[in-house]
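Minutes, structural biology subgroup

Action item carried over from last meeting: produce the structure token record for Cell division ATP-binding protein FtsE (Insulibacter thermoxylanivorax). EB confirmed the sequence was re-checked against the source entry. Recorded below for completeness.
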Amino acid sequence: MIEMQDVWKTYPDGTHALRGISVKVDSNEFVYVVGPSGAGKSTFMKLIYREERPTKGQIFVDNFNLAKLKRRKIPYLRRNIGVIFQDFRLLPKLTAAENVAFAMEVIEAPPKLIKRRTAEVLELVGLADKKNSYPSQLSGGEQQRVAIARAIVNNPAVIVADEPTGNLDPDTSWGIMRLLEEINYRGTTIVMATHNKEIVNTMRKRVIAIENGVIVRDEQRGEYGYED
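Output recorded by EB:
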């Protein structure tokens, strides 16, 4: 599903964010990306959904060659990738249902399909009764559930989640993780960057650890491996 071959990323200021990364993520895997702040995790995640381009190397996501992908083709790539952010990034003037529907309107899905899929995913994330609520009327956990609904509404092959529990309390975080596990169980590949030691050590998925721009550890049923 995802493959990086000798990927380097150097920013204009000379910072080497990634140095010769090579890794594969199979379809339907659930992978944690861990490491100290500034290790290169966010760059790693951004490369997957083509927010950044590699300085050197090849990246393949769901049969797209990202290093050679023309700008006009990026929307087609992103139909296959759902992205979840730490800060939710909901549109404040749209209701929960409208925020979710917007992701389908962008790709010009038929109105009947938009209505049906929006209702389905809000039901899945447990927010069918909050469909007409605005982000300001929702708790942090509810806003993140809307963000997850938006990320999955187009049936993406991959979800990239960058610190999705970072702004949430522990109980709410576990609710979000159970939801992501259910989405993974239904067949979606999930790559999640996190600093949450308890979640990683409890759920025991594959762990890729990045330090100073290189992968230093890649373990099935791995542990977090860092002090809080």
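Discussion: The mean pLDDT is 94.
Next step: EB to file the record with the rest of the batch.
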